[in-house]
Amino acid sequence: MKKILVIDDEISIQESFRNILKREYALLFASDGAEGLQRFQEASPDLVLLDLIMPRMDGMTTLKRLREVDATIPIIMLTATQMIKTAVEAMKAGADDYLTKPFDLEELKWVLSKTLSNHDLEKEVQALRTEVSKRYGFENIIGSSQAMQEVFEKVKHVADTKTTVLLLGESGTGKELIAKALHYNSGRRNHPFLAINCAAIPETLLESELFGHERGAFTDAQSRRIGQFEQAHRGTLFLDEVAELSLSCQAKILRVLEERKFMRVGGSEMIEADVRIIAATNKDLEEEIRKGSFREDLYYRINVIPILLQPLRNRREDIPLLIKHFLDKKSHGEPLAPKSITAETMEVLCRYDWPGNVREMENLIEQMATLSSSGLLDLEDIPLTIRRKLHQQPPPNQAILSGKIPLEQAVEQLERQMISEALQQSGHVQTRAAQRLGISRRQLKYKMDALGLSGPKSGLHEDKEASRPPNPR
Ligand SMILES: Nc1ncnc2c1ncn2[C@@H]1O[C@H](COP(=O)(O)OP(=O)(O)OP(=O)(O)O)[C@@H](O)[C@H]1O
Ligand SMILES: [Mg+2]
Description:
- 48% of the residues lie in helices and 14% in strands.
- The protein has three domains: 3-130, Rossmann fold (3-Layer(aba) Sandwich); 136-310, P-loop containing nucleotide triphosphate hydrolases (Rossmann fold, 3-Layer(aba) Sandwich); 314-450, Orthogonal Bundle (Helicase, Ruva Protein, domain 3), CATH 1.10.8.60.
- The protein is an alpha/beta fold.
- Magnesium ion binds next to helix 7.
């Protein structure tokens, strides 16, 4: 039952509230402002009914004091009909609504339930916003590679600006995730983030989708429609797969980006919307320009701050961290899901090329963790398709000589593989593994840390002798 605090000096009014409302609400009473404030702090009610005219502290003063204590609690003023003007002033000072005496029973009940449910909705929206913001916080974007550190730097730098950002990278590298991180780490976070998949909207509908249309603008336009640009006012518009836009749509988008104004289809009024633009593509836009399928002027418009997300195979040190992240995420939702992965399995997955990048990995870990019969992901849990693809991957020597894999990365890959095997063959005793590899234990530990093969983040078996290395991020 919701708690309502009635602050009114007239005993008869208190009585009538008691009679009308006691079935639906828990009621508390106070006969003047000072007592009201005290009760408010003791009982933290869900709503306050506040009389304007009272002895000692009057309603306006009480209202201001209450607002100092609590900025959002719904407050409804009670007033005599001839005092409407003061009631309007009270609304300006932060009251949510007012009721005139004598009360209409139905009106009273309706105003109370409407105000309370609005307040509940607001609280819920606020809670959801906080949750969403957290989800797109930097701590949920994984990556310790140089490439990802550069991405973080840029994102932090430009998040809270209105600058247009162009996200580039293969499918599944995290473009949308970064777009959301930019939005939710900016002052725009409490306004909409709208994503438009440019590849999915038919050309004929794009204009009305983006800019909206007036009623009767075309045969099917039975009512006015507000377009995405307008809906995203004060927020962010994410133009995903921007290279897929037809040339004529590109021209239309270019115009809005230049003028920051547009008209609804069939409308005559110029509309201004304060929208931050983020665009993304997995295509090479310069190549598209050469082919004549992307406008050069639009390219310069959106390519203000480019952020490149490297494919996973070019930042392999992120692989173990991401695997651990997705395992954690899975076991967080399902306590029985496996929490760790054997060193051999990790090593194999680190060698894989991940053509579908982080998305492929997220799905694979989900699949492996779901199907695994033990608490530990093992070699047998790797699906056959992946194992086959691993065999088909070009041998490293060839890939290095043809410039596909930088030497440094190939060396790292080999080290990772050898260390995992040595550890496995020596029962995960580091001293013995180091002996096998002809290096000191210190060297081994150093390499394991550097390669993400040890420590709490990697989810590997811990060697009894191993001390915990610092968190890689
Ligand atoms: N660095 C990262 N840390 C954690 N999760 C990530 C990271 N990068 C990507 N992901 C996750 O991988 C999945 C794919 O990412 P996202 O949808 O952002 O890719 P994309 O680049 O937009 O792909 P596409 O071009 O196919 O649309 C998402 O679930 C995302 O949360
Ligand atoms: Mg995407």
